[in-house]
Amino acid sequence: MSISEKDAKSLLSHEEYEAVKSAYHPAIYALDRDGLRNLALRLEGYREKAKTFARQKRREAKGTAEPRGKSFPGTADQPAKKKQVFAHALKVVKKERARLHNLDVRAQNVEAAHRALALRRASQFTHHPQGDPTANPGQQAKGGRPKRVRTPGSKVGSILKANARAQAKRDHRPN
Predict the structure, then answer these.
(1) How does DSSP classify residue 71?
(2) What is the pLDDT of residues 53-98, one digit of tens each?
């Protein structure tokens, strides 16, 4: 169920209405990423507060909870409608954030594709060095230490055991 702007203005305080109003068509495009994130956080806070009040009013109407505060206006319908207004505005803000994210991702993909195309085109043209006579340096030393042979742990244990058996045989041999 959609709530008109006039009804939303009558339900919300001035601060809440300004936050909701900035979540819609002309004002939302003026916000940057941080502004959208901050607006989403404010709207989530307002929505949670309205949800808490609506739940409290429903519990009071059922008789399972004591009245809260001095005078909270209206029935459970008013905070429920406020929650709907905030939830809808939050949905719009989240869609806008997703839209901006998708635009950035698409731009990054296009940029990567352009780089890949440039690399591919550059690799198609082979560069041949000049054919001047040059001396062959001959065989070059690899350098570094010789490669270390690594014996696996399972083999180390079996070698140790074989040595122990051989020593045991020698110990039990008559002189």
Answers:
(1) -
(2) 889 888 888 888 787 766 655 666 888 899 999 999 999 999 999 9
**Eight-class DSSP state of 172:** T
CB 81 within 8 A of CB 11: yes
The CA distances from residue 101 to 44, 108, 113, 141, in Å, are 20, 11, 18, 53
**Helical pair 14-21 and 77-124, crossing angle rounded to 10 deg:** 30
Tokens linked to 44: 């989530």
Lookup result for tokens 């959208």: 36
- 26 near 92, Cβ under 8 Å? no
CB 4 within 8 A of CB 20: no
Q: Per residue in 17-27, pLDDT tens?
A: 999 999 988 88
